[in-house]
């Protein structure tokens, strides 16, 4: 164990910091859950790519920098330190990207990874259906083979980014007689293809960030299937592992929130409830614990280890600490917490953050599902 | 930057775990509980034969010269096995302090050979554990740390933990061997590590119980309510561990921020152990409310160590001064600097 950065890592940090200071937007963008903000965020994604910062851990051949996970953590720390915008392409770079890297053909890698890293192809995920949320094996949307195409019919819902994004990925039943986990395939589709209808869904905050998707005999080339026909469940579970695991929520995000929470507390300490003081400290401690653990997991993976069901521990921890930290802020703000704009100016980031944090324990497999995974796979309790 | 433990550390830890699992069984705890002294020369000799007292004693004095990171890994195993002998205080707290002080070669040699046990007293920790069996005592006084041979007798107090031997403090005297703060931080760190080991053991006991105890025709561990209790506690334990390791490295390196990391470690470990003890007794149901189930030995040790070496208020106050008070730089990029 050596908890000091190497000279090279420090130099890398300085390089990221300099680029972020020169390039990160000085003022907050409009939320990416609205069309105007979505386009602002895409522009930022392309600017990042122009500095070759789109996806630092990817191989250079696909527009990355070939960096290791510790460097990625340093990058993320500098990213959040600079107050840079949220990543509109996170479905692509953190979920689909690793999936294509592991299961895609060379042709698929060339076709999808580079545009992803360059911010030229923004991805929506299309897992859920009205009858298949946490029970994803209940999927009924079909993709029926017709020569070298699939014909897709059915419906997806709660597809994040799908109101505005370019492409989507999801699971479809390629064997119409199959049940549950079998007979599913992992297919990528153009959201602008004929037969795709998007119906934006207003989320809790009122913005139309995600959508329902209706597929009316949409023709998708077989070449858009990742891995073999009927192997979709295995691939999707790997993607879900990426989602719960290391890269979706970097600790820097929560450390930045904890830092802002401490500043908020200092500003309204005089009227704070006695318990708030401890909650603020807990937010800092939990963000730190999450950071240490993430560095530990990164070290383990770099040493040849793997992260399996432990990813469920991470997902529960970050989603619940995020909700608690934002709840504390809302309570500190008191009567001002309900205002959409604080001080008549910028959007109330605490309110937006609190609303968003409420989704954390639900998406990427609800925390109840994660607790089942921990109990059954880590503790060995009976199903 | 590398957060993994070495193969040597993994081997050592596993060796200690296997040894203790074989000899330091619940039956042994019950036998000690039934004895007058609650201590056993045979158990101590076994620990000494295993080489535990000398782990942090420099090689020149017959020890292994290991680090505080090794110490927390071993302390967790002592907690897991519910070891009550003063091995943590002597080997993992006193030894590194005396090694750092210098000039205490004879005492260190005697620690390494298992002849000397050291009791620890500090104003933050109002009771002194294992004073009667100690030949030496490290005392905090006016900010300094004093080493003396133990002389006078002492008044035995009654702890809820049947294997904890507590005494009222005695007059502090002796030669200066360091600072009172160093004693507090080392002891709090080792207590935190033991708490995580205790929590691990309780999780294992509760999980085993949930697998085997049937109600309504099936193991209670198949019920989601029980699963979720245990999973929630497992999350807390998992996230206390790296905080302790981070604190051990900071204290070993003499980092200015080490006291904050130690306080964080103590709070995280105590929270995890406290939550786990409540979860474990709930999982055991009425059986858990009896003296007959082993669980209570671990649960009571967890209560005791949670309050020892700085209680919740003490460690929160240190976090408060550093984080809200602004003494520590916080935010992204400040995890390790």
Automatic annotation (TrEMBL), chain A:
GO terms for molecular function: flavin adenine dinucleotide binding; oxidoreductase activity, acting on the CH-CH group of donors. Its cofactor is FAD. Residues 124-218 form the Acyl-CoA oxidase/dehydrogenase middle domain. Residues 230-379 form the Acyl-CoA dehydrogenase/oxidase C-terminal domain. It holds the Pfam family Acyl-CoA_dh_N. SUPFAM superfamilies: Acyl-CoA dehydrogenase C-terminal domain-like, Acyl-CoA dehydrogenase NM domain-like. The keyword Oxidoreductase applies. Keywords: FAD, Flavoprotein, Oxidoreductase. Residues 6-120 form the Acyl-CoA dehydrogenase/oxidase N-terminal domain. One of its GO terms (cellular component) is plasma membrane. Belongs to the acyl-CoA dehydrogenase family. This is Acyl-CoA dehydrogenase. It comes from Sphingopyxis lindanitolerans.
TrEMBL record, chain B:
Keywords: FAD, Flavoprotein, Oxidoreductase. Residues 6-114 form the Acyl-CoA dehydrogenase/oxidase N-terminal domain. This is Acyl-CoA dehydrogenase. Residues 182-322 form the Acyl-CoA dehydrogenase/oxidase C-terminal domain. Belongs to the acyl-CoA dehydrogenase family. Its cofactor is FAD. Transmembrane segments: none annotated. The keyword Oxidoreductase applies. It comes from the Bacteria. GO terms for molecular function: acyl-CoA dehydrogenase activity; flavin adenine dinucleotide binding.
